[in-house]
Structures are given as structure tokens and as C-alpha cells.
TrEMBL record:
Pfam families linked to this entry: Dak2
One MF annotation (Gene Ontology) recorded for this entry: phosphoenolpyruvate-glycerone phosphotransferase activity
Species annotation: Paraburkholderia nemoris
Domain DhaL intervals: 4-203
UniProt KW keywords: Kinase, Transferase
Entry-linked Gene3D superfamilies: 1.25.40.340
Protein name as it appears in the record: PTS-dependent dihydroxyacetone kinase, ADP-binding subunit DhaL
Classification lineage: Bacteria, Pseudomonadati, Pseudomonadota, Betaproteobacteria, Burkholderiales
Database matches in PANTHER family: TRIOKINASE/FMN CYCLASE, TRIOKINASE_FMN CYCLASE
InterPro entries assigned to the protein according to its UniProt record, in alphabetical order: DhaK_L_YcgS, DhaL_dom, DhaL_dom_sf, Dihydroxyacetone_Kinase
């Protein structure tokens, strides 16, 4: 894992988000203000523009470069939240070995930082409904000594299941919470974008067996 791996994951996430632009735009039109995917794509495009800085850095610093770019370009509620994810992962990467168990801790630390920033856990119909179960499953798999391949196989399924479960939830955080009961029946856009990014990153890492 190094800056090149980080950039390869960004490329994969960007391609997949772009493919789902209309779908995610519609989700945020239904329970938000419609800008979520455009906020994210703007941030990802800013990351593509600093490719050589990210690719030339070590793993932790590459994540920190990405985090600060995301903070200054994404905006909305999700900008500071994705900043917290990447920056939390960057800080934790200094304390953990670059193996499956270490990476599980790094991801969990990033998710924890999102929780602190957004002051929410599971059940509020947000991206946390995907991020927390994925971090938890990752931690369990690592504790059982799972291989990287097993992890890359399992996490996209956990993400998808939990993304779909946001459909029936009542939103109690963010813009969607203003709709009250009318927020039910729609998948949360941040849960969907997070799930898409997790799936594409796992697929990309599997392709190169990283
Ligand atoms: P905004 O709602 O300000 O327009 P975005 O459209 O970029 O921001 O992002 C909306 C997404 O942010 C939601 O779908 C939800 O997943 C996520 N979100 C909103 N508030 C929180 C929060 N407090 N904690 C975690 N995620 C949140
Ligand atoms: Mg929005």
C-alpha cells in the first residue's frame, strides 16, 4: 500500500461514481437537495488533478493530501465527513502495520472520525449505516485471520446489504431529517455513494492482488 495504490483506488471509485451519477443525483433529489454526487465528483476531479503528488507520497501522507483536497472541494455535509474518513485513516496508518489486520484498524479509525464529526452512529439513515457495519465486519474478519481476498469478497456484500437497509429507515440526521416520515422509502445517497466506493476499491485491489 502506497500513494500509487491510493490513487488507483481513487480512479476506481471515480469511474464507478461517474457511472452512477444519475441514480445518486435522483436519490439526493428525493430526500436532499440533489448535490451529493456533484459534490463528490468535484472532489474526485480535484484529486485526479494532484495525481503526481498522491502517487509520489507514502500511504499515510497520500491519504492526508487527498483528505485536505476533499475538504476544500467537496462541500455540503459530506465534504467534512469524507475528509474525516481519509484524515482519520491517515493518522491511524502511522500506528498500524500495513497488513490486513492493520488496515482493518486504519479503516475503523477513519469511520470513528466520521462518527465524531457527524455525531451519529447506525440507524440515522446516513453513510454511517454502511461505514460502521463494514468496519465492524472488517475487524471481525481480521481477528479471525482472514486473507485479503476473503476481506475483499465479504465487504462489498456487507456494504450492499446495509445500503439497501437505509431505504426503510427514518432519517434523523442531515437534510433528509427535515422530511420526517417522508424520508422513508428512499435509499440514502451517502450510503449508496459509500457502498459504491467500497465495492469499486475492493474490486480494484482484487484485480492487482493488493
Ligand atoms: P448536504 O446534505 O449538505 O447537501 P451532501 O448532499 O453532500 O450534503 O451529502 C448528503 C449525505 O451526507 C447524506 O446522504 C448522508 O449520508 C450524509 N450525512 C449527512 N449528515 C450526516 C451526519 N451527521 N453523519 C454522517 N453522514 C451524514
Ligand atoms: Mg445534498
Amino acid at each position: 500500500m502506497n500513494g500509487k495504490t491510493v490513487m488507483a483506488c481513487i480512479d476506481a471509485a471515480y469511474a464507478s461514481l461517474k457511472e452512477h451519477t444519475d441514480e445518486i443525483a435522483l436519490l439526493d433529489q428525493q430526500i436532499g437537495d440533489g448535490d451529493h454526487i456533484f459534490n463528490l465528483l468535484r472532489g474526485m476531479e480535484a484529486l485526479l488533478a494532484v495525481r503526481s503528488d498522491i502517487e509520489g507520497a507514502a500511504f499515510g501522507p497520500a491519504l492526508e493530501i487527498a483528505a485536505s483536497k476533499v475538504l476544500s472541494t467537496v462541500g455540503g455535509s459530506s465534504g467534512p465527513l469524507f475528509y474525516s474518513l481519509l484524515s482519520g485513516m491517515s493518522k491511524a496508518s502511522e500506528r498500524h502495520a500495513p497488513d490486513t489486520a492493520g488496515f482493518a484498524h486504519v479503516f475503523a479509525a477513519g469511520v470513528e472520525a466520521v462518527g465524531q464529526r457527524g455525531k451519529t452512529g447506525v440507524g440515522s439513515k446516513t453513510m454511517m449505516d454502511v461505514l460502521i457495519p463494514v468496519a465492524k465486519r472488517f475487524d471481525e474478519l481480521a481477528a479471525q485471520g482472514a486473507t485479503a481476498e476473503e476481506v475483499r469478497d465479504a465487504l462489498p456484500r456487507v456494504a450492499e446489504e446495509n445500503m439497501l437497509a437505509t431505504r426503510d429507515m427514518l432519517a434523523t440526521k442531515g437534510r433528509a431529517s427535515f422530511l420526517g416520515e417522508r424520508s422513508r422509502g428512499h435509499i440514502d445517497p451517502g450510503a449508496r455513494s459509500s457502498q459504491i466506493m467500497i465495492a469499486s476499491v475492493c474490486a480494484r485491489l482484487a484485480l492487482h492482488n493488493e
